[in-house]
Amino acid sequence: MKQIFFTPGPSQLYPTVGNHLHQALKSNIPSISHRSSYFVTMIEELSKDLKKFLRIPDNYEIVFLSSGTESMERVIQGCVEQTSFHFTAGAFGKKFLEISQELGKTAVEYEIDISKDLDDVDIPETTELVCITQNETSTGWSYPINKITRLRNNNPNILIAVDIVSSVPYVNLDYKSIDCAFFSVQKGFGLPAGLGILILSPKAIKKAYSLKEKGISIGSYHNFIHLVEGIKKGQTPETPNVLDIYLLHQILKDMLNKGIDKIRKETEEKSSLLYDFFESSSCFEPFVCNKSYQSKTVIVIRGYNTRAIVRHLGNRGFIIGEGYGENATNSFRIANFPSQTIALTENLISELNDYCKNYK
Ligand SMILES: *Cc1c(COP(=O)(O)O)cnc(C)c1O
Question: Which residue among 92, 299, 324 is best mutated to probe the pocket of ligand 1, counting the most ligand atoms within 8 A of its Cβ?
Fold first, then answer.
């Protein structure tokens, strides 16, 4: 049976991945040296294309890591001597917090009540870095972009790091108002897992240099300084995931051809289809009720015995995500990435509708 993945990562591959993979093998990409001029040119072009696609300022650096989780650790090491401040609305925000604690920092938590509005929060003066999970994949709560800009304007001297793992490329972040943003490629870009991308402002890089000067550990081979000084020469500190880097470059070119505005518009169209269905259904309700905070890219739905729903749909070829962590049995999750087309989303809704009619 054909399976369609609506899981929030890894997820359905972007439709052109198969062809690019085939081409990569024909061109011996997995055997090419990461010190070769081919690789240097490839990552220079990838950087340029990513900046163009996501509208990232030219003076920001893009470096390669292995995952979203790794980015959390690198960001804390590179930007924090003592104190980080974390907005948490679920398990991924808490992970960021725990990583800071495990590195011996003072990590201050602001736990968001996802049933309420997020008002302005006073950030303690000792804070060096504010960490935001822009799209909380475990609960489907999303941090409004205009509130990130506001936070920057109210706290111009504090660095801001944003986890955009499950909202890129949809999220329209104003990169000038943040210092670190990171994602991995197995979600919105529809690629095999094993590659993380970290975007750094000049201020974030400067902070790492100043920590190093003070004799504070900023990590080893993947610290900001090695990463940035390497990437300026088209180099990575280790042998990276060259195949995934190649595939990301190809998918970026495809997405640039399609255009980010079109991708964002389609994402909104599909998220409306899904939320409209769930809100009018008698079986389900969105986990986040306040519309201004509902994620457009990971739709989390509250329900009873949701594992049965996940199994039922799985038997019909529609693979959706179970609830995450403590919400494993009272919710399920549906990815709305560029790989999940409008037609596939409509098919999924019709399956859910049948389920609801028969099992009520
Ligand atoms: C998936 C996810 C991560 C972890 O990314 P990995 O690449 O699996 O390490 C971090 N944050 C969010 C919001 C995620 O959805």
Answer: 92
